[in-house]
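INTERNAL AUDIT FORM
Audit reference: QA-55
Scope: verify that the stored structure record matches its stored sequence.
Auditor: D.O.
Record contents follow.
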Amino acid sequence: MHEERAFAWRICPARVYDLGGTLLCSSLKESDRVYAALELKGLNLSMDDNLGRFIAILGLAMIVAIYARKLRLPFTIGLVLSGIGLAFTKPDFGTHLTHDLLFDMILPPLLFEAALSLSWQELILDAGPLFALAGVGTFVSAGVVAFATINFLEWPAPSALVFAALIAATDPVAIIAMFKDNKIHGRLRLLVESESLLNDGVAAVLFVAALAWAQGYGAHQNYSELIFMMTRIMFGGIIIGVFVGLFAMFISFRTDEHIIEAALTTIAAYGAFLLAEHFQVSGVLATVAAGLMIGNFGLGKEMGSSFLSKKGQEFIHGFWEFAAFIANSIVFLLIGVDVASTPFTHYSLPLLGGITLISLFARALAVYPLSVLFLRSKRRISLREQHVLWWGGLRGALAIALALSLPPDLPMRDMILTSTFAVVAFSIIVQGLTMPFLLRKLNFLPKAHAEQ
């Protein structure tokens, strides 16, 4: 029963409750009916329960952080492994990843913190390679996955395109954390972090278009309308993010209190995301745009002077580093819990392995051929950097969030969810653990660091 209930958290659009051995799946709009049913069963959904679980997760994350550093293990990978162990030792662990948790709580601080540290000037210098990799490369990766799953695995086109779009989103948080721990800076870190942020925005927009096409499959499709929708979602999100960032900086003129300034950046991060989602445009791009605006112009990286006080600048950097740490602690621990409770054995393991290899091959075709285009330019991407971009293109929170948002009537929804967790598990554990050896072989990481 536990295995069915744990998996139901992912195959249900919203939430799952266990009422006398019966799984009840309810949308958020039916929350009143669900809470009434739970009260009749004598179950108490109190804030104390949720707070207790949050404190337990946070406490475990602190322990993992301490020992991961001693063992020279990437923190996020240690969390995933701990989550897997937790699922086996405590099978009644009640907290699982949901679309709402990821989109409403986890993604905004992760996106905003990453965008806050990026230099607009450096982005402009590498605009060609970055937009080729994150723009064209995302479409190439999705196209290869869709082609392979349709022709080799005989998936229906709607399911294949939706899966291809969501699995094209990269999330190299573990690699970036490794860069920070080992003081790796410069162009490699810029390429990895910037390409990932832009890739997430493009993949999220492509997913919406693919899902819209899949839901209208078999009917008359107006492809010009799909292209217009993608354009509106993409640029609408950017415009909202820029507007929110400018508004936050304008308000900051009226205060020198560092706590209020930090609160304004919090409003900007979550406000941009929620406002964009309200108008049905890209919340991912909105939060990234707001972070870039505040990071480069609000914190004075591009203008030489800041709209924020000196104390505010220092406090905001520390605050968002802490917020991203909390978000990563929650999401990677729960990824481990959900990976352990996913019934991979319900499907052929060679099939899931084949899907993982397809995603790796698609990522390779999105990196190496496009990098050749800049071989003779000043912004060429070395072969060493290409290897890191390929193997470091991990899948993570965004891919899972998109998979959890799939409608229940989509063909092969369960298979898509299981495949997504399989690819994410492989990329975080296998690719993440082997990344230090690759960095050492490519002379990006000092030998002393890699051996310890």
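Auditor finding: record pair retrieved intact. The chain is about 75% helix and 0% strand.
Action required: none
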